[in-house]
Amino acid sequence: MATTIINSHKVENFSKWLQGFEAGKAMREEAGIKVQGVYQSVDDQNYVTVISEVPNADMARAILSGPAMKEAMKNSGIIDQPETKILQQTF
Q: Can you list the domains of the chain with their CATH numbers?
């Protein structure tokens, strides 16, 4: 059963962040990440939430803590500590 990642964070500028996010498509595909959706807060267009699926929780933790992801997040203009949830579907 797949693991869901919900990752929310504030960015400097949504357009800049989106360019960086799109540039990371190959990295996500190689890591087995399937993006389910990208959302902006209705109250703050620079507050972004990404919902993704990965094969398992161990892989989610490894991806999120890896140097490639940290560098990609830094380069895309994320300006706060992301709020990340790793969820396993129970039924």
A: 3-88 (3.30.70.100)
